[in-house]
Inverse folding.
């Protein structure tokens, strides 16, 4: 059977990458393609090439129907298993299903499947009890070589970070516990836009007014309590009216406008300011039949404005949309990209898509760095080379006026051994081996190995690592101990001796000396300070006290210093670097 579509080059590359990966491995894989890149065509082609049973899962009936339609356009028959579509057929070689319907009818999926394809796979959590994981576990009981492939435009979850562990370009995204092991193909949004496969987004700052949601508490998924949002919005009726007046003005030459509201009450208020005969409101409680009719009228351009609350971010395709107005807050880069993606599909006569964010969401559409939560508002992605393997890491950090990195928050090198030199990554127990260089670390007292700053057990000798909070708590109980929140250090040198003075935020001082003529003391200093030189970006081994003095501005200070009282002086016993815990650090509020 010949394919009715000619795949775009990148779509064929994604298919080829999948075949190549699963011929070599049974480990789960992810393909990352931007919204509008044609994931359903990639799925259809993989299903067409398959010789054994395949299950294609997604979370909304619209995507089930869309993926099934693309497959049947090849002249092939596939089954649909979705309560929302009122069809429950699992007898075909290829079944397109909603995850909810399969999870509720596991007894009908006892056959042996060779491949599970999950569309919008960023919705898969790492929890064994989730619907996706229960289905995968059942199918693995029938076939322990089951292949699992995910497709998404946004390969991350706010509470988890990246959903996969290894990237095919030679770096690692995280430790164990990710739902997927490998990203085998990725295409950036900028590629699609620059080559004319997607419409260019025209990102404009709100010129009239913005909501300020910064004071609202969010949950671990970056979402806000509806009552909190409604309470804030109720105080800003004039802001909402001014925003919608601007939207209507800017929409004069636009064909289709999608407005994303924060809550149902907010959406109703917005709708009240829009032309009634040109506007539709869709929420989670909208009757299914009415919702279908409203969306149909919008797609036929009988309606110009479509206001919605959290229901049209995936599985919705209206290519004529050329204006996206975001009036809802979110910390989820994934959701933000899905929202903007509604306006990036190509359409005849469409030059760009106007995107205005009235909610102050600070998201970089093209380069979202979401591996770790943003440490503070003025952080930005910075490139940090690994002193161990040379890999160019991307971490949150800060730069000076010349663009030089002055601080970063990376913990461990993300590179894979061998990958920096362009070779195939080295394998350890069958898995790519990650570079073990740590920019921030806790040292094991038993064997000296460097461990992650959150580790409780040494990765090398398995010995227990003392929790810094326990160290501080124990020291604070002692009458003959002093604990200072270190706000900085100053140095003095006299011959081979170097004196360090630790300054507490309240004016306290503690001091200690290192004699560089003694190898043991020189080694201790370099392990403590030389290893962390220049925020751990450029570790140095100092040979003399004068060398240290020349570069003292780049020495890292500890966060806490613990000393014990001797007869006539205080002796420094512990210096706690890279602290993350319950105690406040110097000058924190």
């Amino acid at each position: 059977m010949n394919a009715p579509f000619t795949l775009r080059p990148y779509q064929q590359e994604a298919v080829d990458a999948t075949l190549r990966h699963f011929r070599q491995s049974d480990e789960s894989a992810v393909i990352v393609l931007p919204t509008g890149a044609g994931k359903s065509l990639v799925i259809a082609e993989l299903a067409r090439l398959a010789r054994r049973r395949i299950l294609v899962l997604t979370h909304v009936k619209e995507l089930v129907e869309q993926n099934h339609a693309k497959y049947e356009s090849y002249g092939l028959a596939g089954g649909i298993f979705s309560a929302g579509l009122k069809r429950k057929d699992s007898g075909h070689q290829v079944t397109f299903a909603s995850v909810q319907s399969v999870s509720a009818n596991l007894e009908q999926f006892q056959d042996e499947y060779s491949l599970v394809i999950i569309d919008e796979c960023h919705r898969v959590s790492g929890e064994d009890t989730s619907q996706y994981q229960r289905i995968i576990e059942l199918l693995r009981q029938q076939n322990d070589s089951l292949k699992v492939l995910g497709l998404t435009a946004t390969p991350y979850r706010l509470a988890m970070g990246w959903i996969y562990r290894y990237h095919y370009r030679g770096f690692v995204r995280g430790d164990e516990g990710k739902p997927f092991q490998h990203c085998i193909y990725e295409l950036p949004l900028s590629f699609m836009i620059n080559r004319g496969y997607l419409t260019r987004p025209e990102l404009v700052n709100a010129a009239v007014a913005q909501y300020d949601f910064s004071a609202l508490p969010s949950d671990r998924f970056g979402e806000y309590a509806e009552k909190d949002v409604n309470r804030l919005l109720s105080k800003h009726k004039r802001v909402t009216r001014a925003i919608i007046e601007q939207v209507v003005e800017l929409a004069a030459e636009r064909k289709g406008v999608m407005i994303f509201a924060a809550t149902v009450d907010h959406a109703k208020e917005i709708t009240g300011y829009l032309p009634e005969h040109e506007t539709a409101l869709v929420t989670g409680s909208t009757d299914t039949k009415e919702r279908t009719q409203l969306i149909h009228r919008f797609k036929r351009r009988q309606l110009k404005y479509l206001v919605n609350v959290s229901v049209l971010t995936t599985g919705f395709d209206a290519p004529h949309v050329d204006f996206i107005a975001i009036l809802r807050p979110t910390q989820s880069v994934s959701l933000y990209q899905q929202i903007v993606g509604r306006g990036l599909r190509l359409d005849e006569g469409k030059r760009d898509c106007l995107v205005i964010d009235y909610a102050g969401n600070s998201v970089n559409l093209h380069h979202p760095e979401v591996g770790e939560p943003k440490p503070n508002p003025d952080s930005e992605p910075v490139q940090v080379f690994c002193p161990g393997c040379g890999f160019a890491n991307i971490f949150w950090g800060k730069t000076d006026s010349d663009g030089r990195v002055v601080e970063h928050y990376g913990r461990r090198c993300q590179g894979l051994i061998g990958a920096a030199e362009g070779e195939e990554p080295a394998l350890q127990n069958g898995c790519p081996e990650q570079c073990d260089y740590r920019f921030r670390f806790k040292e094991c007292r038993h064997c000296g190995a460097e461990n992650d700053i959150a580790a409780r057990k040494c990765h090398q000798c398995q010995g227990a690592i003392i929790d810094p909070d326990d160290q501080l708590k124990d020291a604070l109980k002692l009458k003959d101990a002093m604990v200072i929140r270190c706000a900085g250090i100053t140095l003095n040198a006299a011959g081979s001796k170097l004196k360090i003075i630790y300054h507490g935020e309240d004016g306290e001082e503690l001091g200690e000396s290192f004699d560089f003529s003694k190898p043991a003391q020189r080694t201790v200093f370099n392990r403590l300070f030389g290893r962390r030189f220049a925020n751990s970006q450029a570790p140095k081994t100092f040979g003399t006290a004068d060398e240290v003095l020349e570069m003292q501005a780049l020495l890292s200070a500890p966060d806490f210093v613990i000393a014990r009282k001797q007869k006539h002086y205080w002796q420094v016993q512990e210096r706690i670097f890279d602290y993350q815990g319950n105690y406040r650090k110097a000058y924190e509020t």
The chain has 14 helices and 30 strands.
